[in-house]
Design goal:
Layout: H1 2-12, H2 15-33, H3 47-62, E1 65-66, E2 73-82, E3 87-91, E4 94-95, E5 102-104, E6 111-116, E7 118-119, E8 124-127, E9 132-137, E10 152-157, E11 167-172, E12 175-189, E13 194-204, H4 220-239, E14 244-251, H5 259-266, E15 275-281, E16 291-294, H6 300-313, E17 319-322, H7 331-335, E18 340-345, H8 367-381
Length: 386
């Protein structure tokens, strides 16, 4: 009986079982954050504030400590144009489905009007007097804007609406919030022997929120997946403190222009010069075709470390190097001389900044491999393996 029990205990705590448990944990995080309750983690229905509260609770329950010793939250604010109310568009008298048939360009003003449209070319239809434009697009890709302009642009999905737009009935309400309050969520595990050397993992937890009362953008891959990976790493390192301090930051304001990471670099809670390396995780939910490393060509030594680990352990199909790009939260750290990678996954789903970026179609098939790659990478950075 004792032998069986010992075997069972060993089995229970073997790395493969721990990874399996972490995959369950990660999937739960992605399911939760991309659910309707969080309303796209944006600017309406308190989406990003609900996510902030939920993730702060996660940081506490994992056992992280606040980075500044007082609070997990680093508060900041900015302006944003939002669409909390009416979102009605009919073309040629036919009502359209928000998110599926059309989106509103996020800098657009609200308007209530029925007008005839003038065709400019095969994809652009305008009413000059009321400054309204209808554009046919192959794919609807939404975003966020800080200002409201004096025009309205409706983007039509030309695959779901085939006829020529001759007239438009529009009733859309926008609301410009000049002081939208949000926060970065920042936690650490103090280093055991070199606490002033810091390895940082980051992901943005905000997404696009809602467009009107009935349509939201779930943001499972972008970026509930990156948040799940950061939380998994935080869970591991609170249970296994390292020689270096391990820091974890979940940024807000990424989708509107990397505003949370910019704010952090201007008001750092750890000295930027102490950061040995920063890894930003965004779009982490696939990986069947491998991963891309932004700044891989700049930090070639660290990139080669990743490749060597991957070749040795056979984790991912390929690791692709890319140059610098201002396309996620690593960028302002890199601009401030902090060595930083941005890792995103390749292959699988094509959903991006649309209503189809949902948890149920997100494979997360390379989640454990990326997790393992990061653990081994950190060991080398801390000179635990040469």
């Amino acid at each position: 009986m004792k032998i069986k029990l010992t075997f069972f205990i060993l089995f229970l705590f073997s790395p493969k079982v721990l990874f399996a448990q972490d995959e369950v944990f990660a999937r739960k995080i992605v399911d939760t954050l991309s659910s309707k309750h969080f309303w796209g983690r944006g600017y309406t229905k308190n989406g990003v504030h609900k996510a902030q509260k939920y993730l702060t609770t996660q940081f506490k329950s994992i056992g992280l400590k606040p980075m500044d010793g007082k609070s997990f939250l680093q508060l900041f604010s900015y302006s944003v144009n939002t669409y909390p109310g009416k979102m009605f568009v009919a073309i040629n008298g036919e009502p359209l489905v928000p998110g599926q048939d059309f989106i509103i360009s996020p800098e657009s003003r609200g308007i209530k009007k029925t007008i005839q449209l003038e065709q400019r070319d095969s994809t652009h239809f305008v009413d000059v007097a009321d400054r309204i434009m209808v554009v046919k697009e192959n794919k609807l890709t939404w975003s966020a804007e800080q200002k409201a302009k004096d025009y309205t642009i409706i983007e039509l999905n030309k695959n779901s609406f085939k006829p020529t737009p001759l007239s438009i009935s529009i009733n859309i309400k926008n609301k410009l919030i000049t002081d939208f309050k949000t926060a970065n969520i920042c936690g650490i595990v103090k280093g055991t022997s070199k606490p002033d050397s810091v390895i940082v993992y980051t992901a943005h937890y905000d997404h696009l929120g809602g467009m009107g009362r009935k349509t939201f953008f779930p943001g499972a891959n972008d970026n509930a997946s990156g948040v799940a990976q950061v939380l998994s790493l935080a869970k591991y390192y609170t249970a296994h403190p390292q020689p270096y301090t391990m820091a974890f930051i979940l940024f807000s304001g990424e989708e509107i222009g990397l505003l949370g990471s910019k704010y952090f670099t201007e008001h750092p809670l750890v000295p930027l010069k102490n950061i040995r390396f920063l890894v930003n995780l965004d779009l982490e939910g696939t990986g069947i075709d491998g991963i891309t490393i932004v700044n891989g060509s700049i930090y070639s030594r660290e990139f080669n470390i990743l490749k060597q680990i991957n070749n040795k352990d056979g984790l991912l199909p390929k690791i692709v190097s890319r140059g610098k790009a201002a396309n996620s939260d690593h960028y302002f750290f890199f601009k401030n001389d902090v060595p930083a990678f941005y890792i995103y996954t390749l292959g699988g789903i094509k959903a991006y900044h649309d209503i189809y970026d949902i948890s149920s179609t997100l494979p997360m098939d390379k989640y454990s491999d990326i997790f393992t790659l990061m653990l081994n990478f950190n060991d080398v950075l801390m000179n635990k393996h040469h």
